[in-house]
């Protein structure tokens, strides 16, 4: 099914179409070296002025996971509670090199998350990022300082069976397609799609 949906038009590495966001997780533990390997990939993301504003807080034990589940929306908790690891994606908003505010903190942190997700796919580990959580509750529960922004919560683990999900989620448990390049690529100005 995945191969039928995800066909690139142009030649790219298969890792980009292999990566998607399942919701069904096995209870199998992730070896420390594999888990740290995901964050090693994030480490090498591009970063403006090499500031590296990204930070991650992870939950691997039940007490830490319960803290995460306290601020995740119920519609996500129903499936993400089975993931072996939950991770908060965070960025440092201020930076002396920029005279105060770092205008690229979110952009650079997004690049770090993308590197993590692709490395996970390479290792046959699944990731599913969520925006469905209460940011202020998350900041309080994880003791995130005011000069840091929390962007997403990511469920990390090994893929489980589609049938373990509710019927509604089973219908969504397929890799999504993407818009064609011509729909978002412009040349010269924002209104010229003739590339």
Number of strands: 6
H/I helix tally: 8
Structural class: alpha+beta
**Low-pLDDT segments:** none
Number of structural units classed as domains = 1
CATH class division: Alpha Beta
What's the CATH architecture? 3-Layer(aba) Sandwich
The average pLDDT is 94
Biggest β-sheet description: 4 strands, antiparallel
Main sheet: strand order: 1-2-6-5
Q: What would you note in describing this structure?
A:
Keywords: Oxidoreductase. One of its GO terms (molecular function) is oxidoreductase activity. The two termini are 31 Å apart. This protein has a four-stranded antiparallel sheet, sandwiched between helices. It has a two-stranded antiparallel sheet with strand order 3-4. A hairpin with a 4-residue loop joins strand 3 and strand 4. The longest helix has 18 residues, at 105-122. The protein has helices at residues 2-5, 15-18, 32-43, 62-69, 74-80, 105-122, 135-141, 167-172; strands at 54-59, 85-92, 94-95, 100-101, 126-130, 148-157. The protein is globular and about 50 Å long. Helix 3 (32-43) runs antiparallel to helix 6. By secondary structure, it is of the alpha+beta class. It has eight helices and six strands. 34% of the residues lie in helices and 17% in strands. The mean pLDDT is 94. It has a single domain (26-162), classed as NADH Oxidase.
């Amino acid at each position: 099914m995945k191969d039928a949906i995800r066909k690139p038009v142009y030649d790219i590495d298969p890792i980009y179409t292999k990566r998607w966001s399942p919701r069904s997780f096995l209870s199998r533990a992730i070896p420390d070296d594999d888990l740290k390997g995901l964050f090693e990939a994030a480490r090498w993301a591009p970063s403006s002025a090499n500031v590296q504003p990204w930070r991650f807080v992870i939950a691997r034990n039940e007490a830490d996971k319960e803290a995460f589940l306290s601020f995740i929306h119920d519609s996500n908790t129903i499936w993400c509670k089975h993931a072996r690891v939950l991770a908060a994606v965070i960025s440092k908003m201020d930076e002396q090199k920029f005279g105060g505010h770092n205008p690229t903190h979110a952009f650079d942190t997004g690049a770090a998350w993308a590197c993590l997700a692709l490395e996970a796919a390479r290792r046959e580990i699944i990731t599913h990022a969520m925006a469905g959580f209460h940011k202020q509750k998350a900041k309080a529960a994880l003791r995130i300082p005011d000069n840091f922004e929390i962007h997403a919560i990511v469920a990390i683990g090994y893929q489980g069976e589609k049938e373990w999900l509710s019927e509604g989620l089973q219908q969504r448990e397929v890799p999504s397609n993407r818009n064609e390049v011509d729909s978002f690529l412009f040349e010269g100005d924002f209104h010229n799609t003739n590339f």
